[in-house]
Amino acid sequence: MIADREFRSDLYYRLNVFPIRIPPLRERREDIPLLARYFAQKFAQQMQKRIETIPTVHMKALSDWDWPGNVRELANFIERAVILTRGNSLQVPVAELRGVAPVRIDAEHEFGLMNLRRQRHLNAGMRLRALCKKQSTRSIAENVLPMNMPRTSTRKSCAR
């Protein structure tokens, strides 16, 4: 990462004073029940629900899953389960674990997505400049531009 200039070398050496390697969740499955109970209680408290148990079948399904998103994925999954649960026993949507293959995005694909987003933004800017002569700024912003392009872009582009 440092050689590719993706990470500052001085920052790397500051952080690397005492390296800590935390294995992924799939390599420490014994932590999954403890984390699942913790997140269930945390989210139940936030949502003012009372969840007392997680069925053994559901806990086994949670422990068998690889959790490619690690603890964050587990936390999000348990939060969704707490939202959907009626009663005091956590109802885990096990079908989601069986039916969905984990999505893994490699660096090349991610780079392609960034380029696609940048290209869409550039194309929107070119369309905007071409239409500035024909329409008001408001109608362009409402009808032509993508939702994520800031409105200030319309004023700047039309002013050129």
Can you describe this structure?
The protein is mainly alpha-helical. The chain folds into two domains: 24-99, Helicase, Ruva Protein, domain 3; 113-159, no CATH class. The chain contains eight helices and no strands. Helix 6 packs across helix 8 (152-159). It starts with 8 loop residues before the first helix and ends with a helix.
Helix-strand pattern: HHHHHHHH
Strand content: under 5%
Shape, please? Answer: extended
- Rounded Rg: 24 Å
Q: Biggest sheet: strands, sense, closure?
A: none
Quick structural overview:
By secondary structure, the chain is mostly helical.
Helices, strands, pairings?
Layout: H1 9-15, H2 32-46, H3 56-64, H4 70-84, H5 94-99, H6 107-132, H7 137-143, H8 152-159
Helix pairs in contact: 2-4, 6-8
